[in-house]
Amino acid sequence: MWLQRILVSIYVLFCMTLGMALVTLPWLGNWFDEGLVAQWPALQHVLQLGFVRGAISGLGVIDIWVGVLEAVNYRDHRPPAPGATPGPTGISNDGHQ
To answer: Is residue 88 part of a domain?
Structure first.
């Protein structure tokens, strides 16, 4: 159960960090003037368009939202009790599936 909590925490942290980066990076000065994209001026021009920057920031907002939803909706998945038998609906006598 602790491993589940740790993995969900890492996933939420990853989603939030990536989302914040995607929201802010396109709006910084020259965000793709250096590096791999510097070899293709046409791609640089497309990446500087406001629509593309907004779309990338929108993906960042969605990523942040996924992290928040994952944190809010987290439930521990416990294994069934050793003596519990599933009923006709697949739910055991103690309420677990």
So the answer is: no
Separation of alpha carbons 59 and 6, rounded Å: 25
Tell me whether residue 80 is in a domain. no
Q: 36 Cβ partners below 8 Å, 6+ apart?
A: none
CA–CA distances in Å: residue 7 to residues 15, 32, 52, 93: 12, 32, 32, 29
Q: Where are the alpha helices (DSSP H) in 2-48?
A: 2-24, 41-47
Residue pLDDT, tens place only, 23-76 = 998 888 677 767 677 788 888 888 888 999 999 999 999 999 999 998 888 777
In angstroms, rounded to a whole number, what is the distance separating the alpha carbons of residues 94 and 8? 26
The whole domain housing 64 covers 10-72
